[in-house]
Specification:
This protein has two helices and eight strands; from the N terminus they run βαββββαβββ. It is of the alpha/beta class. The protein has two domains: 1-56, 2,3-Dihydroxybiphenyl 1,2-Dioxygenase, domain 1 (Roll); 70-121, Signal recognition particle alu RNA binding heterodimer, srp9/1 (2-Layer Sandwich). β7 (103-107) and β8 (113-117) form a beta hairpin. The two termini are 15 Å apart.
Length: 121
């Protein structure tokens, strides 16, 4: 069972809000640096935690299959739910980059590749 996924972000607040708003995720906790600035936001995805962690590293844009983690894919129930999420993500300013018979691909605010899929398990 997967415990958590850690995702580096230069703008933790913006990236966490993107995932929380799009997928209606609950915020579990926030962590701060000693100076009070935001270090991370943890979001609940069923029994897994999405940890959006602050980084100063430059953006690493992956196209297709890259080395190491290269995609966050979220399950949706069916085609109608996928199309509804496509509309929401586009309204949030992220265009759909690719579609297959079961999945739609787009980017979060910092360029990480994300998908929604109803491919049978």
């Amino acid at each position: 069972m997967l415990h958590h996924i850690a995702l580096g972000a230069r703008d933790v607040e913006r990236v966490a809000a993107f995932y929380a708003d799009l997928f209606e995720l609950s915020e579990k906790t926030r962590h701060h640096y000693d100076d009070g600035s935001l270090r991370s936001v943890w979001l609940e995805i069923d029994s897994t935690i999405l940890m959006v962690e602050h980084t100063e590293a430059p953006e690493r844009r992956v196209e297709g299959v890259g080395a190491g983690p290269f995609l966050l894919a979220f399950a949706v129930g069916d085609e109608d739910e996928r199309r509804a999420l496509e509309a929401r993500v586009e309204a949030m300013g992220s265009p759909i980059e690719e579609r297959t018979g079961f999945s739609s691909y787009f980017r979060d605010p910092e360029g990480n590749r994300v998908a929604v899929s109803h491919y049978p398990r």
